[in-house]
Amino acid sequence: MKQRWVPLGKIFGPEHLPEWAKSHAAVPLIHKSGGSKVNKIYFTSRDARGRSTLGSFNLDLSGNPKIYGVSEAPYLVPGNLGAFDDDGVMACCFCQVGDETFLYYIGWNRGVTVPFRNSIGLARASAFGDLSRVFEGPILDRTPLEPHFVASCFVMEQPAGRFRMWYLSCVGWDLHAGQPRHRYHIKYAESTDGVVWERTGQVAIDFEHDSEYAISRPWVVKDRDCWKMWYSYRGESYKIGYAESSDGIKWRRMDHLVSLPRAGSWDSEMVEYPCVFDSDGRRWMIYNGNGYGISGIGLAALSTE
Q: Within a 13 Å sphere around the CA of 165, how many CA atoms are in the beta-carbon half?
Protein backbone atom coordinates (compact mmCIF):
# COMPACT_ATOMS: atom_id res chain seq x y z
CA MET A 1 0.00 0.00 0.00
CA LYS A 2 1.33 3.42 -0.96
CA GLN A 3 2.38 5.64 1.93
CA ARG A 4 1.15 9.19 1.45
CA TRP A 5 3.09 11.44 3.78
CA VAL A 6 1.59 14.89 4.28
CA PRO A 7 4.34 17.49 4.75
CA LEU A 8 3.62 19.98 7.54
CA GLY A 9 6.55 22.20 6.68
CA LYS A 10 9.86 23.05 8.28
CA ILE A 11 9.69 23.02 12.07
CA PHE A 12 13.33 23.83 12.92
CA GLY A 13 15.68 25.93 10.84
CA PRO A 14 18.88 27.97 11.04
CA GLU A 15 16.98 30.71 12.86
CA HIS A 16 16.38 28.35 15.79
CA LEU A 17 20.01 27.37 16.34
CA PRO A 18 21.54 28.29 19.73
CA GLU A 19 24.72 30.35 19.96
CA TRP A 20 26.99 27.32 20.26
CA ALA A 21 25.80 25.94 16.90
CA LYS A 22 26.93 27.80 13.78
CA SER A 23 25.17 25.68 11.14
CA HIS A 24 23.18 22.49 10.47
CA ALA A 25 20.37 20.68 12.24
CA ALA A 26 21.10 17.28 10.73
CA VAL A 27 20.00 13.68 11.30
CA PRO A 28 17.00 14.40 13.57
CA LEU A 29 16.39 11.76 16.23
CA ILE A 30 13.44 11.31 18.57
CA HIS A 31 13.76 10.47 22.24
CA LYS A 32 10.44 10.68 24.05
CA SER A 33 10.61 12.50 27.36
CA GLY A 34 7.29 14.10 28.22
CA GLY A 35 4.41 11.83 27.30
CA SER A 36 2.83 10.93 23.99
CA LYS A 37 2.39 14.49 22.73
CA VAL A 38 5.69 16.11 23.73
CA ASN A 39 8.84 14.60 22.33
CA LYS A 40 12.52 15.44 22.68
CA ILE A 41 14.30 15.72 19.34
CA TYR A 42 18.10 15.53 19.08
CA PHE A 43 19.96 17.06 16.14
CA THR A 44 23.54 17.39 14.94
CA SER A 45 25.05 20.83 14.38
CA ARG A 46 28.43 22.20 13.37
CA ASP A 47 30.49 24.50 15.55
CA ALA A 48 32.74 27.34 14.41
CA ARG A 49 35.48 24.83 13.51
CA GLY A 50 33.14 22.66 11.45
CA ARG A 51 33.01 19.91 14.07
CA SER A 52 29.77 18.04 14.79
CA THR A 53 28.02 18.39 18.16
CA LEU A 54 24.63 17.29 19.52
CA GLY A 55 21.75 19.46 20.72
CA SER A 56 18.02 19.07 21.23
CA PHE A 57 14.61 20.74 21.30
CA ASN A 58 11.13 19.73 22.40
CA LEU A 59 8.39 19.10 19.84
CA ASP A 60 4.79 19.55 20.97
CA LEU A 61 2.27 17.68 18.81
CA SER A 62 -0.81 18.41 20.94
CA GLY A 63 -2.13 20.95 18.41
CA ASN A 64 -0.33 22.81 15.68
CA PRO A 65 3.25 21.47 15.92
CA LYS A 66 5.51 23.81 17.84
CA ILE A 67 9.00 23.69 19.28
CA TYR A 68 10.47 25.03 22.50
CA GLY A 69 13.30 24.32 24.93
CA VAL A 70 16.27 24.40 22.55
CA SER A 71 19.34 23.19 24.44
CA GLU A 72 21.55 26.00 25.72
CA ALA A 73 24.67 23.83 25.55
CA PRO A 74 25.61 20.76 23.49
CA TYR A 75 24.94 17.33 24.98
CA LEU A 76 27.90 15.57 23.41
CA VAL A 77 30.99 17.26 21.98
CA PRO A 78 33.92 15.98 19.89
CA GLY A 79 36.23 13.51 21.59
CA ASN A 80 39.80 13.86 22.76
CA LEU A 81 42.59 14.71 20.33
CA GLY A 82 43.38 11.67 18.22
CA ALA A 83 40.26 9.74 19.22
CA PHE A 84 37.88 8.28 16.63
CA ASP A 85 35.44 11.16 17.17
CA ASP A 86 37.72 14.17 17.61
CA ASP A 87 36.17 15.93 14.59
CA GLY A 88 32.60 15.31 15.60
CA VAL A 89 29.69 13.20 16.80
CA MET A 90 26.38 12.54 15.05
CA ALA A 91 23.44 10.85 16.82
CA CYS A 92 21.98 7.68 15.25
CA CYS A 93 19.44 6.08 17.62
CA PHE A 94 18.53 5.34 21.22
CA CYS A 95 18.02 1.81 22.53
CA GLN A 96 17.12 0.52 25.98
CA VAL A 97 19.68 -2.08 27.07
CA GLY A 98 18.76 -3.53 30.45
CA ASP A 99 18.48 -0.63 32.89
CA GLU A 100 20.40 1.76 30.66
CA THR A 101 19.47 3.91 27.70
CA PHE A 102 22.23 3.86 25.12
CA LEU A 103 22.80 6.32 22.30
CA TYR A 104 24.57 4.89 19.26
CA TYR A 105 26.41 7.64 17.42
CA ILE A 106 28.79 8.28 14.55
CA GLY A 107 32.25 9.54 15.40
CA TRP A 108 34.37 10.94 12.60
CA ASN A 109 37.82 12.22 11.69
CA ARG A 110 38.99 14.29 8.76
CA GLY A 111 41.02 12.33 6.25
CA VAL A 112 43.98 13.06 3.96
CA THR A 113 43.55 10.84 0.91
CA VAL A 114 39.75 10.79 1.42
CA PRO A 115 37.65 13.50 3.12
CA PHE A 116 36.66 11.59 6.27
CA ARG A 117 36.52 8.33 8.16
CA ASN A 118 33.58 7.21 10.35
CA SER A 119 33.08 4.72 13.19
CA ILE A 120 30.22 3.96 15.60
CA GLY A 121 30.46 4.94 19.26
CA LEU A 122 28.30 4.41 22.33
CA ALA A 123 27.02 6.96 24.86
CA ARG A 124 24.84 6.64 27.95
CA ALA A 125 21.73 8.80 28.42
CA SER A 126 20.65 9.96 31.88
CA ALA A 127 17.04 10.32 32.98
CA PHE A 128 17.34 14.02 32.06
CA GLY A 129 18.66 13.31 28.57
CA ASP A 130 22.27 14.21 29.30
CA LEU A 131 24.85 12.11 27.45
CA SER A 132 28.20 10.65 28.44
CA ARG A 133 30.53 8.31 26.58
CA VAL A 134 30.56 4.67 27.60
CA PHE A 135 33.93 4.12 25.91
CA GLU A 136 36.57 6.44 24.50
CA GLY A 137 36.88 4.17 21.46
CA PRO A 138 34.34 2.90 18.92
CA ILE A 139 32.24 -0.25 19.27
CA LEU A 140 32.15 -0.73 15.47
CA ASP A 141 35.07 0.16 13.23
CA ARG A 142 37.03 -1.16 10.28
CA THR A 143 37.60 -4.90 10.06
CA PRO A 144 39.54 -7.17 7.67
CA LEU A 145 36.32 -7.65 5.69
CA GLU A 146 35.05 -4.06 6.01
CA PRO A 147 38.21 -2.03 5.41
CA HIS A 148 36.77 1.44 4.80
CA PHE A 149 34.26 2.70 7.40
CA VAL A 150 30.93 2.11 9.13
CA ALA A 151 28.43 4.80 10.09
CA SER A 152 24.74 5.55 10.67
CA CYS A 153 22.93 2.70 12.41
CA PHE A 154 19.64 1.67 13.96
CA VAL A 155 19.51 -0.71 16.93
CA MET A 156 16.51 -2.63 18.28
CA GLU A 157 16.05 -5.44 20.82
CA GLN A 158 13.74 -7.96 19.16
CA PRO A 159 13.05 -10.50 20.56
CA ALA A 160 14.22 -10.08 24.17
CA GLY A 161 17.94 -10.73 24.51
CA ARG A 162 18.61 -10.39 20.78
CA PHE A 163 19.84 -7.00 19.64
CA ARG A 164 19.73 -6.21 15.94
CA MET A 165 21.65 -3.51 14.12
CA TRP A 166 21.27 -2.17 10.60
CA TYR A 167 24.25 -0.01 9.72
CA LEU A 168 25.95 1.84 6.90
CA SER A 169 28.95 0.02 5.47
CA CYS A 170 31.32 1.66 3.00
CA VAL A 171 32.36 -0.77 0.27
CA GLY A 172 34.95 1.51 -1.29
CA TRP A 173 35.97 4.86 -2.73
CA ASP A 174 36.41 5.87 -6.36
CA LEU A 175 37.32 9.04 -8.19
CA HIS A 176 34.41 11.07 -9.50
CA ALA A 177 35.27 14.21 -11.46
CA GLY A 178 38.75 13.92 -9.97
CA GLN A 179 37.51 13.78 -6.37
CA PRO A 180 37.15 10.74 -4.07
CA ARG A 181 33.56 9.58 -3.70
CA HIS A 182 32.35 6.96 -1.22
CA ARG A 183 30.05 4.04 -2.01
CA TYR A 184 28.02 2.56 0.85
CA HIS A 185 24.94 0.47 1.56
CA ILE A 186 23.19 -1.05 4.61
CA LYS A 187 24.34 -4.24 6.37
CA TYR A 188 23.02 -6.24 9.34
CA ALA A 189 24.61 -7.37 12.64
CA GLU A 190 23.50 -9.02 15.89
CA SER A 191 24.49 -8.84 19.57
CA THR A 192 23.50 -10.32 22.92
CA ASP A 193 24.42 -7.22 24.94
CA GLY A 194 24.16 -4.25 22.55
CA VAL A 195 27.91 -3.65 22.79
CA VAL A 196 29.79 -6.53 21.12
CA TRP A 197 28.47 -7.20 17.63
CA GLU A 198 28.69 -10.17 15.28
CA ARG A 199 29.05 -9.04 11.68
CA THR A 200 28.71 -11.65 8.96
CA GLY A 201 28.57 -9.34 5.97
CA GLN A 202 24.81 -9.78 5.54
CA VAL A 203 23.55 -7.01 3.24
CA ALA A 204 20.14 -5.61 4.16
CA ILE A 205 19.63 -2.85 1.55
CA ASP A 206 21.79 -3.05 -1.58
CA PHE A 207 22.35 -0.79 -4.56
CA GLU A 208 19.76 -1.02 -7.33
CA HIS A 209 22.03 0.18 -10.15
CA ASP A 210 25.55 1.46 -10.83
CA SER A 211 24.66 5.15 -10.54
CA GLU A 212 23.36 4.68 -6.99
CA TYR A 213 26.25 5.12 -4.59
CA ALA A 214 24.93 6.04 -1.12
CA ILE A 215 22.30 4.36 1.09
CA SER A 216 22.23 5.67 4.64
CA ARG A 217 20.40 6.39 7.90
CA PRO A 218 18.23 3.27 8.29
CA TRP A 219 15.18 3.60 10.54
CA VAL A 220 13.32 0.38 11.42
CA VAL A 221 9.82 -0.22 12.80
CA LYS A 222 8.36 -3.64 13.56
CA ASP A 223 4.64 -3.55 12.88
CA ARG A 224 2.26 -6.47 13.29
CA ASP A 225 2.34 -7.41 9.64
CA CYS A 226 6.06 -7.02 8.89
CA TRP A 227 9.33 -5.20 9.50
CA LYS A 228 9.55 -1.78 7.84
CA MET A 229 12.60 0.33 7.07
CA TRP A 230 12.96 3.90 5.87
CA TYR A 231 16.35 5.17 4.68
CA SER A 232 18.07 7.69 2.41
CA TYR A 233 19.33 6.70 -1.01
CA ARG A 234 21.23 8.74 -3.52
CA GLY A 235 22.20 8.85 -7.11
CA GLU A 236 21.97 12.47 -8.24
CA SER A 237 20.42 13.65 -4.95
CA TYR A 238 19.04 12.11 -1.76
CA LYS A 239 15.52 10.71 -1.59
CA ILE A 240 13.74 8.73 1.11
CA GLY A 241 13.34 5.03 0.39
CA TYR A 242 11.39 2.19 1.96
CA ALA A 243 11.72 -1.58 2.34
CA GLU A 244 9.84 -4.45 4.00
CA SER A 245 10.95 -7.75 5.53
CA SER A 246 9.39 -10.80 7.14
CA ASP A 247 12.37 -11.44 9.43
CA GLY A 248 14.33 -8.16 9.66
CA ILE A 249 17.28 -9.72 7.81
CA LYS A 250 16.29 -10.07 4.17
CA TRP A 251 14.59 -6.98 2.77
CA ARG A 252 12.68 -6.04 -0.36
CA ARG A 253 13.10 -2.47 -1.58
CA MET A 254 9.80 -0.72 -2.31
CA ASP A 255 10.93 2.88 -2.75
CA HIS A 256 8.00 3.62 -5.06
CA LEU A 257 5.57 3.28 -2.13
CA VAL A 258 6.83 6.43 -0.39
CA SER A 259 5.09 9.65 -1.44
CA LEU A 260 6.51 12.74 0.27
CA PRO A 261 5.84 15.96 -1.70
CA ARG A 262 8.42 18.70 -1.41
CA ALA A 263 7.23 21.35 1.05
CA GLY A 264 9.09 24.47 -0.09
CA SER A 265 12.43 25.97 -0.99
CA TRP A 266 14.06 24.36 2.04
CA ASP A 267 13.65 20.80 0.62
CA SER A 268 13.44 21.56 -3.10
CA GLU A 269 16.67 19.71 -3.95
CA MET A 270 16.67 16.70 -1.63
CA VAL A 271 15.04 14.97 1.33
CA GLU A 272 16.97 12.60 3.59
CA TYR A 273 17.68 11.15 7.07
CA PRO A 274 14.15 9.99 8.03
CA CYS A 275 13.14 9.29 11.63
CA VAL A 276 9.70 7.65 11.93
CA PHE A 277 7.70 7.43 15.17
CA ASP A 278 4.17 7.01 16.53
CA SER A 279 2.64 9.64 18.80
CA ASP A 280 -0.91 10.51 19.82
CA GLY A 281 -2.37 7.82 17.55
CA ARG A 282 -0.56 8.94 14.40
CA ARG A 283 2.64 8.05 12.56
CA TRP A 284 5.07 10.91 11.98
CA MET A 285 8.33 11.50 10.19
CA ILE A 286 11.01 14.09 10.85
CA TYR A 287 13.65 14.54 8.16
CA ASN A 288 16.15 16.90 6.57
CA GLY A 289 16.00 18.84 3.33
CA ASN A 290 18.61 20.68 1.27
CA GLY A 291 22.25 20.66 2.27
CA TYR A 292 22.24 17.57 4.53
CA GLY A 293 20.65 19.52 7.38
CA ILE A 294 21.77 23.07 6.59
CA SER A 295 18.21 24.13 5.73
CA GLY A 296 16.63 22.50 8.79
CA ILE A 297 14.18 19.80 9.89
CA GLY A 298 10.75 19.08 8.45
CA LEU A 299 7.76 17.20 9.82
CA ALA A 300 5.31 14.98 7.93
CA ALA A 301 2.30 12.91 9.00
CA LEU A 302 1.26 9.64 7.42
CA SER A 303 -2.16 10.03 5.81
CA THR A 304 -4.86 7.67 7.07
CA GLU A 305 -7.05 8.19 4.00
A: 30
